[in-house]
Amino acid sequence: MARGEAAGSISQADLMRLVQEARQWLASPAGCMLLDAERQVQREVLSACFGQHLVQYGLAPELLTPEVRVLRHCWLLDMSGEGESIATEEAHWPFAPQALDVVVLHHGLDFSLSPRALLREASQAVRAGGHLLIFGFNPLSTWGWQHYLGRDWFGEAGFVSPARLEDWLELLGFAVEKRLDGCYRPPLASPTWLRRLAFLESFGQRGGLPGGGFYCLLARRQMLGATPQRERGRVFPALVMPPLAAGSRRAHKRNGR
């Protein structure tokens, strides 16, 4: 895909190629640093969520490791349907409206045909009082420099700004409860330099600085006149799918970030 097309539309074939490039990069030193930091954030944030059903969609299915699966039933969605993932179109999820307690978008908006359509579909699946947990690459960071310079897959990924995302969430009836940032070191290929710059992580975390390479937003769907109660589970719970909804299969184009 040409660099100029990144600001407009992208074909599904180009998007799948881009996702595969980024997934291969996750095995690099910088990619491992990213996943380790995001797992730590996810573990902290999910402790505040409750319910029965969690769905994750996005870049790295392996992000949802057993130690962070705090909800009883967890599913993975993916456009390619790799591994244990359920093959799903980003704008046509197989769940009824308000069927899920938590939806995790792991850089889903950064690798999307239409970020707004994906966010709308994910938000509709969340019940009142449920949560959206969104990981995104921060354009206002050293990682964002790679994006604006057009280097590798960084130049073609979406890099939706957290400020714009908060506006979208507000329009969809969500309130952002928490924002966490991580990966204050640049995405260098050298593990030696990543170790030497480790002090940037502690400096950024202590100051609560917003310039990390990724951000994580925890947003809650607003509800009127009711307080959700923590559900009591059985000792040996049955694997129960949330309500499903039939959907048509259509192709979509990116219509801007």
Set down the secondary structure blueprint.
Layout: H1 12-25, H2 29-46, E1 53-58, E2 73-78, E3 86-87, E4 100-106, H3 115-124, E5 126-137, H4 142-148, H5 162-171, E6 174-182, H6 191-196, H7 199-207, E7 214-221
Parallel strand pairs: 1-2, 1-4, 2-3, 4-5
Antiparallel strand pairs: 5-7, 6-7
Protein name: Methyltransferase type 11 domain-containing protein
Organism: Halopseudomonas pachastrellae
GO molecular function, one term: S-adenosylmethionine-dependent methyltransferase activity
What does this structure look like?
Residues 1-8, 225-239 and 246-257 have low confidence and may be disordered. The longest helix has 18 residues, at 29-46. The protein has a 7-stranded mixed beta sheet with strand order 3-2-1-4-5-7-6, sandwiched between helices. Strand 4 (100-106), helix 3 (115-124) and strand 5 (126-137) form a beta-alpha-beta unit. The chain is of the alpha/beta class and 257 residues long. The chain is globular, with a radius of gyration of 18 Å. It is built from 7 helices and 7 strands; from the N terminus they run H-H-E-E-E-E-H-E-H-H-E-H-H-E. The chain has a single domain, classed as Vaccinia Virus protein VP39 (Rossmann fold), CATH 3.40.50.150. InterPro entries: Methyltransf_11, SAM-dependent_MTases_sf.
